[in-house]
Amino acid sequence: MLRGNPYRGKEQDVWALGILLYTIVYKENPFYSIDEIMDHDLRVPYVMSEECLDLIRKMLDRDVERRIGIGDVLKHEWCIIGEEALDDL
Question: Do 67 and 9 form a contact (C-beta atoms < 8 A)?
C-alpha cells in the first residue's frame, strides 16, 4: 500500500499481525518511519527463540508474494510449539 499498490486484504492482515507480534515480543515498534519500512532490515534487539524470529520475519516480508499466509502462520513451528505447551498444562 505504501508504494501505491491496491489493498490486498489477507496479505496486509498478516503484515499487521507481524507488527503486533513483534511489538508484543520486543516491547517496541519494528519500524519508526516509512523509510525503515521500505528499505531497512528488520531490527532484532535479541533472539527470544529462533522459531519466533523466523515467524516474525516471514510475516514482515516486504514481498507480498513471498509473505507467509495466515494458514501457514497457524501451521508454523512456533505456533505448534505454543499449542503443545498449552496441552501440557
Answer: no
* pTM, entire model: 0.81
CATH number at residue 80: 1.10.510.10
Give which of 44, 63, 62, 40 is closest to 52, Cα–Cα: 44
Calculate the CA 82 to chain-centre distance. Answer: 16
Alpha-carbon distance 38 to 5, whole Å? Answer: 13
Task: Report if residue 1 sits inside a domain.
Answer: no
Per-residue pLDDT of the chain (89 residues; tens, 9 = 90+): 445 666 567 778 999 999 999 999 999 999 988 888 888 889 899 998 999 999 999 999 998 899 999 999 999 999 998 777 767 76
4 assigned to some structural domain: no
Domain count, the chain: 1
